[in-house]
Write a structure and sequence with these properties.
The chain is of the alpha/beta class. 31% of the residues lie in helices and 24% in strands.
């Protein structure tokens, strides 16, 4: 399996949502949900996108899949810019990219049986003759650990973990290369989360899948990801391998995120130094000038108000957007 080949290249991606008011729905401002982010995703690897709720993670995933067309920027999939394609031109690419949604209770049509849910993309894309569809659905259910005898049941007859397995089967129906996992286990019981994570890891190895794994839990992302990018208020503040960011976080926000993670070992939990961020998360409608994180950063400097730090390489696959690491801080 070749891990050096770039499957996805995101360049200066922006997604702004207009705020419209009044009788004539005049645009009075924008929600800066995703504001100029760039990253690469290599074939066969998992990139974890992590950050607080509302930082733009899910919007990034949807913009990549063109479910929410980007305001600006490029989304290069195997070298082709998806952002300039029409819906008709985008259709062949839909087979290559799929999404697993956060809530298995809301993402499955309650009026359809499991067989109808999983077979729907196969029928829409005319992938198989009718007489082969049932066997394919049974095969997909087996892949995710469900008995084929369950295919005539409805979503309400399943537990949350089983429903998410149905969602995964549906995502696999078109043999995709890339799957966006949008917080796929956050709505599940803790006892079930590890089972679904291990299933995703096994499927990746068996089917040579590439994942964009979106979550707010650093330890979960560390467990499942090869590489990691940390988002804050629509921007990426740090990137690197999963091990690098988990063991040696450099950006003040990454450090704060990691310090909030409880430790299973009571001794380590007692020694854990929690970094409490001051203030509230600013509004993406009116983000702070300069560095987006400066209003809550314990190490903020005067330059942080004036200049937005660039995401720059500091060697060994690490990238950080912080004035502490670009020579701006006087020694």
């Amino acid at each position: 399996m070749e891990h050096n080949e770039k499957l996805l290249e995101v360049r200066n991606l922006k997604k702004y949502f207009p705020i419209k008011k009044g009788l004539f729905k005049k645009t009075t401002g924008y929600v800066y949900a995703v504001d100029d982010i760039s990253f690469d995703l290599h074939k066969g690897r998992t990139l974890g996108l992590v950050g607080e709720s509302g930082c733009g993670k899910s919007t990034t995933g949807r913009a990549i899949l063109q479910l929410q067309p980007p305001t600006a920027g490029e989304v290069l999939y195997e070298g082709e810019n998806l952002a300039v394609l029409s819906q008709k031109q985008m259709r062949p690419n839909r087979r290559k990219m799929q999404i697993i949604f956060q809530d298995p209770y809301a993402s499955l049509n309650p009026r359809l049986t499991v067989e109808e849910i999983v077979s729907e993309p196969i029928i829409v894309h005319k992938l198989l003759p009718k007489d082969q569809i049932e066997d394919r659905v049974a095969e997909l259910l087996g892949l995710v650990g469900l008995d084929s005898e369950l295919m005539n049941r409805y979503p309400h007859e399943f537990s949350g973990g089983q429903r998410q397995r149905v969602s995964i089967a549906r995502a696999l129906a078109l043999n995709p290369d890339l799957i966006v996992c949008d917080e796929p286990i956050s709505a599940l019981d803790v006892s079930i989360q590890a089972q679904v994570l291990n299933l995703l890891i096994r499927l990746q190895k068996e089917l040579d899948l590439t994942y964009l794994f979106i979550a707010h839990d650093l330890s979960m992302v560390h467990y499942v990801s090869d590489d990691m990018a940390v988002m804050y208020l629509g921007t990426i503040v740090e990137k690197g391998t999963s091990e690098q960011l988990y063991k040696d976080p450099m950006h003040p926000y990454t450090r704060a995120l990691l310090s909030a993670e409880p430790k299973a070992n009571p001794r380590l939990e007692k020694e854990r130094h929690r970094i409490i961020l001051k203030g509230e998360l600013p509004s993406p409608i009116n983000p702070p000038s300069g560095c987006r994180f400066r209003t809550r950063c314990p190490q903020a400097m005067d330059i942080c108000k004036e200049i937005r730090p660039e995401l720059q390489s500091i060697g060994d696959e690490r990238m950080v957007a912080c004035h502490l690491f670009n020579g701006s801080k006087e020694n």
